[in-house]
Amino acid sequence: MREINFLQHRRKKLTKLQERDRHYLQLAAILFIIIFSLAAAVVFARIFYSRRYQNILSSQQNVEQEILSQESVEKDFIVMMSKIAVLKKIYDQRQDKQQAINYFSTIFGPQVLIKQIEYAGNDNLLTFVLSADNVFVMDRVFAILNSEEIKNKYAQVTPSNLHRLESGEYQINVAVVLREKK
User: What is the mean pLDDT of residues 68-77?
Assistant: First the structure.
């Protein structure tokens, strides 16, 4: 009887084939959806990152243009800072000279007069002439010039050319290197 009813057997076989085909179709559809989703994600990611890249390039160009537009301000600032540094150095040297003159004018007392002050900026050397009315005051000047206080404060103090004028006044030349000892 089975052989006679081959249609039923054939239908069962076709139903199984249809179910298997439907299963393969579902798998193919799922695979197609996954591949399509991945492709769409890649395309959208590429578009997104391409726009971000373009935005970053645009920002970079804007920043570069702004930096270039501020270049003259930066140059002016650098030039100004260099000028200030030079002025500070000159002022410091002048301040050292003023302090030395004030120091030496007060240390000897009122009986000693400072004359002919000269400053050699290249050598940082201050020279002046000390004048006193008598030899005893000049002896005290020598003692002060050779004292430890002066030696500790200035690198080099050199008295020279002690002589007496016709008026009876004593004079001595003093050279002071203004670089103070630390």
Answer: 88
56-70, 99-113, 162-176, range with the lowest pLDDT: 99-113
Look up residue 14 and give its amino acid. Answer: L
**Cα 131-135-139 angle, rounded to 5 deg:** 90
Q: Decide: 9 and 2 in contact? Cβ < 8 Å.
A: yes
Strands (E), the chain: 112-120, 125-132, 154-164, 170-180
3-state DSSP assignment of residue 120: strand
Burial 83-105 (b: 16+ CB within 10 A, else e): eeeeeeeeeeeeebbeebbeebb
Question: Are the CB atoms for 181 and 154 separated by under 8 Å?
Answer: yes
Tokens 């270039």 belong to residue: 68
Exposed/middle/buried for 113, CB within 10 Å: 0-12, 13-18, 19+? middle
Question: Would the pTM count as exceeding 0.90?
Answer: no
